[in-house]
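Researcher: I'm preparing a figure for a lab meeting and need a structural model of a single chain. I don't have an experimental structure, so a prediction will have to do for now. The sequence is pasted below. Please return the structure as tokens so I can convert it later.
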Amino acid sequence: MVKSVQRAIRILEVLGRQEHLTLAALSRKLIAPKTTVFEILATLESERLVHRDDELGTYSLGIKLLELGQMAQCGLELCKLVLPFLQRLNRELDETVHLTVLDQDEVLYIDCIESSKRLRTYSVIGVHAPLHCTAVGKALLAALPPGCRDAIVRRIPLPRFTNSTITDRGQLMNELERIAQRGYAIDNVEHEEGVRCVGAAVINLAGDVVASISVSGPTQRISMQSMDTLAAALLATTRDISQRLGAVTPLHQRSRQSDALLVK
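Model: Understood. Here is the structure written out token by token.
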């Protein structure tokens, strides 16, 4: 356990019960030296987790906590809504399925249902992963508006994890265009050795990408030839979830419609 982190959490808990406390008051409540409490408060303040009133010299909870609370609430609501669909997909394929969201410039895994098979990929809930070499990450990127997608691709690092990892930005952009057309992304042993994965995005009424879902398993069982079957089941799932969120047209069909209008 990290003592300074524990004390930071304790400070937030104390301020949650009684705001506008001075440094001295917090020091007494925590039974900790003022210098130690001050250093933790300064860090929390720099991250907007705590607000300091310069006039009164008191501390209260910061606005960042409200933002984090809203994000947590949205995540919980999304998990609750999506869970029956994940369970259905897992029953149909008996492979591990994950639900992920875009978090800054990474993928965040927020829910999982594992395969019942002994040889399987395991839950990574709460773990971040790169965008450029995971099926869920590429699916999220491909579903973003072009300007936003391009900006992210330009700034994120593209480290190599396996011999199949895409590390060239031009190649990645071409891959994302193909994903946008067909509606799903493939991780062909690009992030982890021995693992293949297919991912697709979930959109809402406004057409904004809100999440992505993946089906993953070991290469011994999931061949490239089986990807079409997995992708069909996955796209049916993301279509149903997107419709529950108000979307009328699946993402890849929207892309094709846009191309048709441009040709006309």
